[in-house]
Amino acid sequence: MKKRLYLELENCIGCRSCLAACTQCGGHEERNRNYVYDVNPLVNRQTMPLMCLHCVNPACARSCPAQAIQIHETGAVLSALVEKCIGCQNCTIACPYGIPKFDTEQNLMYKCDLCIDRTKNGIPPMCASVCPSNTLQWLTDEEIGNRKKQFNLDNGKWVSSLPYLESETNVKVNLPGILQGIEKLF
Amino acid sequence: MQKDKFFKAESNVVHPNETLVKTHCAYCGMQCGMNLRVNVATNKIIGVEPRYDWPVTVGKMCPKGVTAYQQTNHDDRILKPLIRDDASLKGTKEGFREASWNEAYDLIANKFRELQVKYGKDSLSVFSGVSMTNEKCYLTGKFARVALGTRYIDYNGRFCMSSAAGGFLRSFGVDRGSTLPWTDIHETDCLFIAGSNTAECHPTSMFRVWNVQERGGYIIVADPRETPIARRADVHLDLKPGTDLALANGILNLLIQNGYADEEFINNHTNGFEETKELVKEFTPEYTSELTGVASKKIIRAAEIYGKSPNAVVMFARGIEQQHKGVDNVSGYTNLALVTGKIGRPKSGVATFTGQGNGQGGREHGQKADLLPGYRKITNPEHVAEVCKVWKITPEEMPQPGVSAYEMFELMEQKTIRGLYLLCSNPAVSAPNLNFVRTSMKNLDFMVCSDFYLSESAEFADVILPSVTWSEDEGTVTNLEGRIIKINKAQEPIGESKPDWQIQVELAERLGKGKYFSHLKTAKDVADEFRLASKGGNADYYGATWDKIDKQDGVFWPCKDENDMGTPHMFLDKKFYHADGKAKICALPYRPPAEEPDEKYPLRLTTGRVVYHYLSGNQTRRIQFLRDMCPEPYVEVHPETAKKYNMDHEDKVRLYTRRGEAIYKVKITEAIRKDTVFVPYHFGHEQSINLLTIAALDPISRMPEFKVCAAQMEKVEIKKVQ
Fold first, then answer.
1. Contact by Cβ (8 Å): B475, B26
2. What's the pTM?
3. Cβ–Cβ below 8 Å for B199 and A24
4. Chain B residue closest to A151 (CA)?
5. N or C: which end of chain A has fewer CB within 10 A?
6. Measured between CB atoms, does B217 come within 8 Å of chain A?
7. What is residue A171's predicted lDDT score, i.e. its pLDDT?
């Protein structure tokens, strides 16, 4: 059954285990391809991960003059093909989330490929495998749907159902506020 | 063993020419499951894979766990024994030369003999740690008593878990860190977490912790800082460091006043209630608020939530334990569970977050100054006789109890102790009042240090013995649940390094004690003797064979025989381990911290961990990823306090106490009390915050008060170079 990367930002504890794990995939040249930010530095300890959302119609690939950014049949937006990437960095500008990273020495863009060697075989990506706080999870659409129901608010709006800049994404995100719709046990 | 809703049978990637060795992490008491990737051609560990089938952590790892494998083949490994002939270089990295094991053993045996002939058996000491297997911990205790014949052995658990141990022994009559398995945590209705920065120190507990709230349950956190877990807590009790006992008494008083006491449970299964009820009466919300600095309404709300919760777990860690009333704090918070009867059933109980990998097992089997295997007392003649039978010595040969870790340094200063064998610990960073401790180590006549890296403490040694990392040996450890688990060997020891148990066997032979040790040829041999030595004790491991551990995903002690499956939940029969089967509700008068702020030192200094480092940092500071994330210590200051001191973010300040000083960069954050500053303790030399901390010891656990002392700071003016 198809699973997706699913994010609940409110759970993030800032441990950056996802960054460390990204280097351990086996296919990432031991360089991490994701980000964790302090949301309110100098104020509190809230953090959030920024992962590639694997857009259905990705700006990075659209902007690539060399067609170096391929989309896998699973929907994963892959890292630039070494033989095609011309190092123009269009993608790093085009991506509204600032995901693609650039290696100036190799003159090559690299980005999250959703651990394609794993996920194409139904194995979870490294980041979601290790995430200690369940900020990053690897779920079926049904499981994501159940969570969506759980986080329903009285006003009928799901707190995280915001339209993204790039509209439909393969990765699903839940913004802070997941506890607003929770009914307390007592 | 129980598999819960988080358990998913995911498969692993196995790369070509690699195998996976299943084991557990090198670091904290969570002991997360992991698979080590081993190259079959080179027999070298080259990476890590999640271990999805480990029921406690289901593949999850913190950044320390993910990078732990990088320790084993690290460039900094010590590959051969090192000897330093010039004692004037002690306290530096200089002057070591490589030597053969023979030369090192001869030197050690000669020096040890010489000191014992001249100054008596007790002139030698052993200082050990609990980041190693039960087998090593057990043998270290035997080595000290049988091979060296000294009374002076103690370990770094005195800086970590000893208050939890003392509190549990007093309240329950037994010290198992958690009364329930971790797979219960997310199913409870309320977590009352005191003095634990869980998100940073035990990160892989967090998916269970958050799930309590997701189910509609509550999280209450007592911490002077707004830690990541406090940020999302339903109630954050932002108390002054060192005032936990007042808070615990205040909440207990409200529970009793508001009818949440379980009278049937109290009458049938506890002692001490009436006396305690009288004592806590004084701790009204207003008085508690005055002592702790927490708003009364928060205290009232916390008591109401805990009281109403059908099930609840009280959890705590070093924040409450590393105080000179740490044992009272532990019993004080444990009172909440005993008075409300929320213990001795699934989903309810009390747990401490064990700090070190084998903090639980390592304290049970004879590394502590007054303990023998199986949690036996060295002062109890029956217990001594039982162990003597296994060790094949006479009770007369068993040394007397020694002194606690910090007190050993006092004896070094007084020249009562003249020789030290240090292993698995780095007290030159982790002990309090470091100026004194470092001087004591420097003044030793002879010191041996066993480590796999040249730690700050190894810098004081005459001989350094290269030991192995966790993945080059096998054995058991006991995780924070009280679950005995198996560490597996993933590669052969590099260089000439050896496991500590083997070093001790060979050293014992040099010391003429071979007949007590030579039969121990493998870690399994040590394990079998150790299980036998624990048999009949409170911490009975006899039935926990390696085979059973493998088959049922670990074994919870006590596990008395072959047919015993172990004990995941303690006290289900409501029988506690005191002679009358009852638990003790403790009446605990409040004491303030040993050093209160005054005009000269108006701030409260507290210390702790960051997620990227483990203990003294000897291991984690060498791992590139972790060092990049947190390369140096800092002092956390509230913006209003910083303004008063005319300080900005990243300014350098001199922080000082009556005992020492250090210079740190300021990290401004609103997530700390205005009267408190915080510095992480993982750093060595002039960066160690323990230069400043106070060695006020708990009267029972002999735990130093790391968590609070009085401090002052001033901005360091940087002279601009023209």
1. no
2. 0.96
3. no
4. B214
5. N
6. yes
7. 85
